[in-house]
Design goal:
Layout lengths: L15 H4 L2 H17 L5 H17 L4 H7 L4 H13 L4 E4 L2 E4 H27 L2 H10 L4 H30 L10 H28 L16 H7 L1 H15 L1
Antiparallel strand pairs: 1-2
Helix pairs in contact: 2-6, 2-7, 2-11, 3-6, 3-11, 5-6, 7-8
Length: 253
Amino acid sequence: MGAGHSHRLYRHGHSPVHALPPHTKLAAVLAFVIVVVSTPREAMWAFAAYAVLLAAVAYAARVPAAFLLKRLLIEVPFVAFAVLLPFVAEGERVDVLGLSLSVNGLWGAWNVLAKGTLGVAASVLLAATTELRELLHGLQRLKLPPLLVQIASFMVRYGDVITDEMRRMRIARESRGFEARGIRHWGVLAKSAGALFIRSYERGERVHLAMVSRGYAGVMPVIDEVAASRAQWSYALALPCAALVVCLLGWTL
């Protein structure tokens, strides 16, 4: 995990949030999501307060609102599911604009939308201020099982390699006049998928042999040991601590 690997969600910057050690940001986001999920759905004002807290983090990280909103589109399938809940859920019903909707379904839809959107927004902010390599280091620092960290590391490293291999195979097919137009071309695409699998497997075997020949024994060496000071932990945990206060008020008010 020594080489850098940027991703599209990352936004290069030099803000205080960017400078925080990755494991502190991972712990802060996890704690924030747990607090948000634990908030009663009836405390609607609390979710607005969480949104303000995330907006403050985005401002401190110098992440534009357009950047954040564009990447929130990933939750569109969950939005579609939430929209259907008032129509399919059972229980007491209420008329809204001439439509008979379930009260439990409306609350369920609000619960999914509010908590899901806040969780996705927090994750997007984490990805926008932390490179993938740093995220893997953070997971390793938080004592995640080493095997899972290695699997994630290899997936990140060779995802682009396999994507590039798919692009070359597509160009090769198109240069020979092939164009998938219907079900009768599925056979060619299936053979291409099989060839891609074999090539990826062979590449993995070569990489493994190269690693073993260089002394790999099942554990990746830690190149950058990043420690966090008490001030950095305090700065990172300010978000979940403030959210916890809001959550407690949501349960008591």
